Amino acid sequence: LIIYLDTFLMTAEIKMNLLSPADGDFLRAEGRVVKSGKRLIVVTSEVHAYKGRNSKLIALMQGTMVPVPLS
Questions:
Q1: In the chain, at which end, N or C, are there fewer CB atoms within 10 A of the end residue's CB?
Q2: Helix (H) or strand (E) run with residue 36 in it
Q3: 41: which DSSP letter?
């Protein structure tokens, strides 16, 4: 996926599933592009809470982005 400097990403839709309280020493979110098209980009992310050596999935997110040229 390449987003050029003259392009703005607008959020068309976003959904969050909060699965557990964010109890831990730190949080880590990892996202990825599921599908990138000319008009829509579908993205997803998982958030994990880390406590010591253990991690727990605490949230899932999915969004639809719209690339909008600035010029």
A1: C
A2: strand 26-36
A3: E
